[in-house]
Amino acid sequence: MVNADYRVPRGLRSGHLQSVRNRVLPRRYGLESAASSRVILVPADDDSGDRLVVTIHRLPQASRGLVLLVHGLGGSAESVYIRASALGLLRAGFNVARVDLRCAGLSKRTSHHTYHAGKSEDLRAVLRVLARRPEAAADGSPPALAVMGFSLGGAMTLKLLGEPLEGLPVVAGVAVSAPLDLVVGSRHLSSSTFGLYERAVVRGLRDDALSPTPDGTRRLSDEEYAAVLRARSLPDFDDAVTAPRHGWRDSHEYYSVNSALQFLPMITVPTLIIHALDDPMIPAEPYLNVDWGTLERTGPVRRAITEHGGHVGFHERGNPLPWYVGRAVDFLVHATDGERS
């Protein structure tokens, strides 16, 4: 199962410490001096009128394609792990796009609805726009896109890659600390550290859902508003908003339909899954139950599973960038080089 050598620093062996370090001692990753930036708005592919804010960083002479970074639950394009990954990718010659999903980050101002684990169609909408932009093509080569997602954004990424790509020039993907089974994951989150992580996640979701829409109105009906205020667990929140708004019977059906695990055998492009078994927010059980030998022998999915590293942690001493950034960069460089050769 464990096949990757992440050397955990002394004093950071605990998965909990790895997971909370960015909140306690956040590092700053300046992207402005690394590349030119511009912000674009991508219309959602439905009749909602929602638009997603995407920040694009373009190098003067990028030698590779464009990588879309997808944040996790309660995060945004400004999350520390997103900026750290963007810097590592820019240094390796990739252009980078950072998306704020619906009702997250800057997209709170341009969207009425919320995102969820199954919203891979939003990623496809963004990728369709990016595929037509000059940042996607490097050295005169055809457009080449990759997707790198974190936590719930990693689960969205795996689902996207396991679905028909509809002609999109996606050549590779990476998922970091992604929940493979949302049913098992929701139970684990409720029990881990007496529900401490779950309460933090629900607070963030509640704040996003209760924030005003772009025109200053409520995002929620009176019934949804009251249910969200009462929500004490992630299933409570998803029973109140996510499931009924998208046609699922309840949170259990939402989790079952959208769990990334079932999409892994259908992935057709090189994909790296990075995960630590001591992740306190994501259970190890689904990872332990995957037949990695068959999956890697018959398809393009690869794993980098470690004993330690926590949830989107993997901090190293002497290196300001987390360990997963280097692994992802090496994988994407190899994948894009193979695509161009």
Walk me through the structure:
With 341 residues, this protein is α/β, with parallel strands linked by helices. It has twelve helices and eight strands. Strands 1-2-4-3-5-6-7-8 form an eight-stranded mixed beta sheet, sandwiched between helices. Helix 2 links the parallel strand 3 (66-70) and strand 4 (95-100). The longest helix is centred in the last third of the chain and has 18 residues, at 323-340. The chain is globular, with a radius of gyration of 19 Å.
Strand order of the largest sheet: 1-2-4-3-5-6-7-8
How many H/I helices?
12
Give the fraction of residues assigned to helices.
25-40%
- Rounded to an integer, what's the Rg over CA atoms? 19 Å
Number of strands: 8
Basic shape: globular
Give the integer mean of the pLDDT values.
94
Outline the secondary-structure elements.
Blueprint: H1 15-24, E1 36-43, E2 51-58, E3 66-70, H2 80-91, E4 95-100, H3 120-131, E5 145-150, H4 152-162, E6 170-176, H5 182-191, H6 196-210, H7 222-230, H8 234-245, H9 251-258, E7 271-276, H10 285-289, H11 292-298, E8 301-306, H12 323-340
Parallel strand pairs: 3-4, 3-5, 5-6, 6-7, 7-8
Antiparallel strand pairs: 1-2, 2-4
Helix pairs in contact: 3-4, 7-8, 8-9
Summarize the structure in short.
The chain has 341 residues and is α/β, with parallel strands linked by helices.
